[in-house]
Structure formats: C-alpha cells, structure tokens
Amino acid sequence: MSKTLLRNDWVVMALFTAAVLSMPLWLAPIGAGYPDLLQKFAIFGLFAIGYNILFGLTGYLSFGHAVFLGVGSYTAVWSFKLLTMNVLPAVLFSVLMGGLFAVIIGYLSLRRSGIYFSILTLAFAQMSYNMAYSVLTPITNGETGLQLAKSDPRVIDALFIEAGEGLPSTDLFGMQMSGYPGFYFCAVLLIIGFFISLRIFRSPFGLKLLAIKSNQTRMLYTGFNTRPYLLTAFVISGMYAGLAGALMAVTDPLAGAERMQWTASGEVVLMTILGGVGTLIGPLLGVGVIKYFENIFSALNVDTLHQIFSFLPDWLENVVVWISSHFVGEGWHLTLGLLFMVIVIFLPGGLMEGFQRIGSALRNLFKRSEAVAAQPSEKE
Amino acid sequence: MDAIFIQILNGLDKGGAYALIALGLTLVFGTLGVVNFAHGALFMLGAFCAVTTQKLLTISKHVQDTSITFFDAYKDQPYLEIWWGDFGRTIIDWSVPLSILLTIPAMLLIGLSMERGLIRHFYKRSHAEQILMTFGLAIVLQEIIRSIFGANPIPTPAPDIIAGSAPIGALFGLDEALVYPWWRLIYLLFSIITVSGVFAFLQLTTFGMVVRAGMHDRETVGLLGINVERRFTVVFGLAAVVTGLAGAMYAPILSPDYHMGMDFLVLSFIVVVVGGMGSLRGAVAAGFLLGLLQSFASMNEVKTIIPGIDQIIIYLVAVVIILVRPRGLMGRKGVMED
Amino acid sequence: MSDKKVSELSRRGFIKVGAGALAAASMPMFFIKDAWVAKDFRNNPKGAASVKFGFNVPQTGAYADEGADELRAYKLAVKHINGDGDGGMMNTMKPLSLKGNGILGKKLEYVTGDTQTKSDAARGSAKRMIEKDGVLMVTGGSSSGVAIAVQGLCQEMGIIFMAGLTHSNDTTGKDKRRYGFRHFFNAYMSGAALGPVLKKEMGTNRKAYHLTADYTWGWTQEESIKNTTEALGWTTVETVRTPVGAGDFSQYITPVLNSGADVLILNHYGKDMINSLTQAIQFGLKDKMVDGIQFEIVVPLFSRLMAQGAGDAIKGILGTTNWNWSLQDEGSKAFVKSFGQEYGFPPSMAAHTCYVQALLYADACERAGSFYPPEVIKQLEDYDFDGMGNGPTLYRGADHQCFKDVLVVRGNANPSSQFDLLKVEQVVPSAQVTYDPKIFGGELGPYEV
Fold first, then answer.
1. Global pTM?
2. Number of alpha helices (DSSP H) and beta strands (DSSP E) in chain C
C-alpha cells in the first residue's frame, strides 16, 4: 500500500473500522477472541487514545489519569442504580463527569510543567483513590466496589418495566450489553473516538499543541497563551477516560476504587509509550500487548504448555516446558518487564517504530528487487 | 503533650527513612536527569541483602521431626550454633547490623552494573523511554527476588538486646508508659549520619565538587577535560548504596517482601519533587516534613475532626507546596521543568 | 449464548420463528421431554468427555504465596476426583457420591487465572474462564472484595462460584448470592469463638483498643469482635482505622501506650497484620503491664503463612483459624498426607478450604445427576457432611455459609518444626458460632438466571 493513500483520512478510517469490527475473527487464533478481552481492548484503547492526545501532542505526562476512569465508572454505576439500566445516559453522564474532574484537576495541575505537573496529577489521583477506598465508602462501596442491588430505585425504568426476579442487566433499548453486543457497542465508540483523535491530530489545534511540546517558551514569547490549549487537551483526554470508565461499567456493572490507583495510571502511561507516543495507532498496540499478557499469558500453566509443545520430542518438550513455565502463569509479570526493556532498548519509538522499520525494510527489498529486475533490460 | 512528643519522635523516625530513600533518588533523578522507576527496587534489594545475610548465617543442619512422616519437617539448627555455641547464636542474632557488610559491596556492584549496562545509554533519551526501561527493570528485579524468596514477607528481627524499647518516658520525665523501640532510634541516628556523610562527600571532596559542577553544566565541565561520565557512574553507585542501606536497616521495622519497592516508589518521587528538583537539601527537608505531618495527621484527635486525613496528608501537602512554590521547597530552575 | 433475546421481530423473523415453532411442535414427544429435563444452560458440557473447573487465584501481588498454595490444593482435588493418587479426603468424606471416575463419568480438567487480588482483574479472569474456556464452576480467591466481585459476576453469568479464602461477613451476608458458596468461616464466627476463650484467659474487665484495616472486611471484623467483647463486659477504649498497606504503623501504635487500654486487637490481615504485630511488639506491648494487669494482643484472624511472616512475634498470640494441618481427625490426616507427599510440606488453611470446596461441588453434581446449576445448588443447600477436617458441617441454604467447628489457636512458643507454628487452643463447636441468617440481611436471588 502506498504511503500517499494512507494520508487520506477516509482510507485510514475505513481500514481501522474493518480491523476493529473483525477483531473477533482475527484474534481468535491467538486465543483472544472472546467478548471480555475484546471489550477490554476497545475500552483501554479509548483510554490510551485519549491519553495520547494529552501526552503525545503536548508532552505533558499525567500520572493520574486513572482518576477519570474511576470517576466515569462510578458515575455510570450510579446512573444504573438511580435512573435506568439503559447505557446511553450512563455514558453521557460519565463523559461529562470525567470532563468536570479534568477541568478541576487540570486547572490546578497545569499551573506547573514537567515533573511538577506529573506529581500534581499523581497526588490528586492518589487522594481520590485513598478516599474512595475508605472514607467515601457510602458513595463508592469501598474495597468491594459499587454494585447494583435489587432495591435500587431506577426511577426511569420503574416507570416502564416491571422489575424482574434477579438483578437487571445493562441494555441499549432492549439489547443486552454483555458478551458480543457489548463489544460491538464499545467498538463503535472506539471507532468514533479514533476518528475524533485523528481529526485533532490533523487540526490547527493539534499543531498548536505540538508547537507547545517542541518549545513552549518560544510560544510564550510570541504572546501566545498556551494554557487554554493545554487545558482543552487535558479535558478532552479526561473525557475519553471518563468514557472508558463508563464502558467498563456498561460491560460489567461494577466500579472499584483500585481503578484509580497509581498503578492504573501508570498502566496507561506504559501502554502509550510501549506502542509509540504521539502516533495514532501506537497506543492501541500497547493496549493490545499489555492486556493480552495480563489475560492470556497469566492463564497458561504447565499443562497447557505441554499441550502447546506436544509436537516436540518428549525430552525436548520437557525442557522447553520447564523453561517457558517460568515466564507464564505466575511469571507473566517477568515476561512483561523483559518485554518493556527489550522494546525500549531496540525500538526507541515503541512498537510503531518496529512496524515502520519492517515496512521500510520491505520497501527497500522491494525496490532493490525491482532494480535488479530492471537491470537486464537496460543492458539490452 | 506526651502524645505530641511521641508523635514528633515518630515523625522524625519516618522522616529519616523518607529522607534516606529520597536522597538516593534525587541524586539520580534530580541530578543525572534519569526518571528512575527502579529506585524502589533498589530499596527492596537492600532489604533483601539483610535477608540474604540472615539466610547465609542460619544455614542449618537438618534435624528431622520424626513425629511427622508425610513431609519433611525439621527444626533448624544453624551450623554456626553447632560450631561456636553462644557466640554463633550472637552472630545470627546480629545478622541485620552485620548485613551492612554485605549491603555496601553488593549494592555498589548492582548500582555500577546498572549504570554501565543500561542507564548510561538513556541519559539522552526521552523521559518516556526512561520510564519504560526502568519500570521494566523494576519488575524483572522484583520477580527474580520473588522466585528466590517467595512472596510472603520474611521476618528479619533486630538483635535481641535492642529488640525492645527504650524507656524514654522515664528518661525525659514524661509519662512512664512512653517507650520507643531502640531500633527505631538507631535508624534515626543512622539516617542522620548517612545523610551528613553524603553531604560532606559532595561538599568537601574535589570529586564532589566536579559532580556538583557537572550537574549544573555537564558540557562545560566536559570541555575542561574532565570525564564527567565516569563520575556519574560513581554517583549512581553511591545512590544505590545509600538506598540499599536504607532498605537493609529498615528490615526489622518492615519485614521485607518482593513488592515493598513499589510501595515506596510513589512516596520517594513525591518527597523528591516536594523538596525540589536538583536539591539534595530540599529532599532531606521534605522527607522530615512529610514524616512529621503524616504522624500528626494520624492522631485520633486530628482524625476525628477531619476523617481520613491520615490517608491523604502526604498528597495534600505535596499539592499545596507545589502550587505555592513553583519548584518545591528548594528546587533549582530549569531541572525537569519541560 | 443461550439467553440471547430476539430484540426486534421483523416480519421475516416472525415467519422464521413461526416455522421453528411448527417444526418443534411436530417433533416426536421424547425429544421435547428430553429437552425439558436437561434444560440448556451456559457451558453445558452435553456430550463432551470432560468438564472444566476454573481456578481463579492470586498469582501475583501480596497474596501470591497463598494463591500458589490454593492452586496446589486444587490440582490435588482434580487428581483425586479423577481417581488418581491416594484419594485424599475422598476416603473420609461422608456421605460420598463421587466414584473416582471424574464427575458423572466425565474427566475433570481445569484452567487457571490470576486475580492479582483486584476486583477488576479477578472478574476479567473469571470471564475469560467462562466465555472462552467454558468452565462449569469458578473457585478461589484470597480476599473478600474479590470474592464478592466474582460472586456477583457468576450470578449474572449463571455459573456457580465456590469462594476460597474470604472472611468478611458480607460474602454470605449483605452481598450473598444464589450462585455463591462459602466454606470458610467469617468474622462473626471468629468473634463468637474467641469470646469464651478471651473470657477465660483475660477476664471480664478489660479495656480494648482496636486497630482496624480501613476497608469493609476490617470493619465487619471490628464490629463482630467489639460486639463479642462488649457482651463479655469489656470496654472499648478506641477504634482506629489504619490505611491499607500503611507499612509503618508506629503513629497508630504509640497512642496505645498511654491510652489506658490493656488489650490490643489487630483487625489486620496479610502484610498489614505481619507489620502491625511485629511493630507492636517492638513497642513493648507484649511485656507491658497496665495497672498490674498483663497487656495482651489478639489477632482475630490467623493463618500459618502469616505466622511464618511474623516470625517470633506470633508466639503466644491468640486468634482463630478455619483449619490447621495438625488436626488429628481422619479427614485432616488424609488430606495432609496426600498434600504433604505430593508437595513436601503441609497445606495451609487456604489450601484446605479450596480443596474441600472443589470436592463439595463435584460431589453435588454427582448427587444431582446433572450439571444444571439450579439442581446443583439445591444439592448444596442445607447439605450435611462430615469427614472434611472440620467435623460435622452444614452448608446452610439460607445464606450459603458453612457452619462447622472454629479453631481458636495460639502462636506456638516452642515449635517442634518449621511448620509447627500454631497450637490449637480450643475447638469451638459449630453450635456456638451459629447465628440467625437474618442479622446480615441480603438476598440470594433467583435459581434461574
């Protein structure tokens, strides 16, 4: 595929849409084609795309973005509890709530830059997490996490539907939001989110953010007030996180405080860097790798390894299983850590750089063979 | 009054630990400019130096418990005890203080090889890449320790003679019930000595002078024909040793487990940044400040007025200080501000 | 998915459905009868030669060692159910329907997953097991937050959850579910069992000071112990909440020194308990005298792994456990034997409860003659059994909580081996710890989902 074609947004969008919607098919062979993991790819994909709008464009490294994720989840579950099991109001309120929190935290944190900014966001997030875990339990249900209950009022639903015997499930006008329908709902929002991010990257606004990243001082000297732009980027990325949090509650109506812990904020930072900061697709690749390890590698055990390597001769099988068993199951953290190091050492730009290198190598190869093919004709 | 006195002591004790941990980080982070997420792992490795010393000293003879037949149950009888009797027992008892002898060379080696092998290639790389690399490294170190020692905390008690408490209430003419563990007092003293030692080293020696000059302006110092890179290697080694010692000496207070580094990582970054980037003094001051405030916030009297304040005090103080003072307590201009 | 709803009934769809109904009506009678008896349900094994359990345990994080021990016990249970090894508790369980040929003639297999002791990760892992691996039952876990989260999920999905280590009253109280079962004891039972022993050891005129982990499990335990001790005539001087993972507890321990209290109750578990206990003893609380009375420390929930982490600090401290390997009944002996021979060390109480849960579920399927969850649930509800290491036990139907003897234990002052850390002080009979299910509220929910 030629490069010029990829510059066309509509081609990119068409390819992206096709790839996302067909995920259940092409991820099945590697064991990732089941609803929960697909939902996670889409949800954390949105989270990372939004984070990349802040970090990738402005260079401001927020270490507390998980707080918006958590706020989004809590808002969504409360919307299910108080209003209706329909997911649209939940999604709407969560995005607004994520935005609201982002305005407050962003307004304060953006008064500083560099590491001071990072620590401010981290401190806000950790405060929220600790409060949600303990003293705010009446709102958050603490460690257990906020859950639905049969006795919830659900005022809008109560007007239209008779309450069933068990707990109701989330729905979109009668379509249940668990399993594959849930994935497709998330996937559609991911595609929309990706499109918005694409437009932002290619817009004058996006260019201004990039200019801030490359030299903020110069921008300030030219009399350009950077802060409104930074705050806008911060709030947009907070809204993405709020949306992602809402979708977590949509596909699984439970909201826990640990979603706001610094490790959760750190995870999205790692996903973005791993995939490639400031690239459009990179963060999604980072999400894919980390979530795949968390869900699939951690589930391999000695028995499954024996099945995988059963084609080898017995003695070799045992050796291979013995070695690899240290890197799967309870060792999946080790593999992930090694992967981080290997990627950053050999591919400074993250996974995206890897793909670019492969791409240009192929292109060179292609050109050379073309040249070779062309030579004899010259001789004649 | 008594309660306040003892909380001051608690605060100083905590502050000593925070200052020590932050000192190592600020050397690497504020001065070499590396966002070192493996710093917590260095603290953890230090604590496991104490564990290793203890395990080495208590290599034991198998004395089978014959009443149990389904599995191998035994009662430890360390060889040191068999060979040297009471003297051997004393050596085992003093394993944590003795572990300093192992911690210093081990951590120096770890620090130097880390800097030579990995960190030095990342001085000019972006902070994002530094984070990914050091975080990966932290996980790997952590998992290696887990595969050797397991995930459960390992008890590493202080020597028997100082395992108990000093009757400070009686000493200072306060409530007799007030006591304070000897080991915590020793830790406070130890942290003050170590911090002063590092300061003296950087202030009084020529080596320290070059390092400080290099922190300000690496290029100019390099132009003067001085090998700054090599000195930075030594600084990293020094940071590893200080952090490791902080961990090893902390082992009797907090039973070491493989995950303890991550628990201290966030805290150490906050202390350093509150103190101000590039300022050793700031880090130490912030350590003691946060330690003291945390102790006071945990008092029941305070908690009844503001519930949960002890959970967030550190973060709250960090926010207030950074918002009021743009570069923390004593930060230098232009360090990690972009 | 079996419960897929027809969201819109287009004309074409209506014709299809109508045709289907006609076809169904014209089917021979026995087909329909069959379909009615063996109603379809999620992950129905139908003709498959094997069935799968999902073992969802913490493999990383603070409880990784406990999780590893749970996994060992599960693997052993699978072996025994399939008729391999020495059979373990299959030899002592009464009544027993399992035949040592798997479950209902199907070989038992398993999949594993990592809960990371986080609700989200645990639910993600459980969903993977249910959606991708097609497990019949999910079991495991090492904290109440995770147990409640996974239990809620399993109710929605219609898969039975056999809880591992979870001690909060809420698991079978306020948050109980029809599809969730707990064999482990709870905070209320710890309190009820400790009461008489505390009275005997420390009298009725004590002043207690609580340090409590600031989350739901800590609160339920604090409440339970407080109620018990106040009923004895004790006064509660102060209850102080400490942040989870505080590490250094000195700022919470020093106020105890001159508070006038003469008992310290540590409502902590895992790492928090190890650190707070060790540090409390460094502050001299074990040797302290208050107005001529010996100061005491009580840790209501104990485990051998925690005792290992606390080292000498645990010696002489009172607490309760669900089970200990030193018990001498036939069931415990059989289990310790096969576990010890397989792995070279004795099982922890987490391992025991998990092993028993796996066996109980398998046996219930065998009795029900089906894997259909509502039938299996009915077999487990109000089921009496024995020979599983805790004496005669009842799986109460009203809240899915097991009622059995509770062990009051004390840290062993002079252990005879590296595993001999807890001494069983008293076996409190189940009648003494039984309570009315109504006191905690909650609702089990429907059988059919």
1. 0.90
2. 14, 17
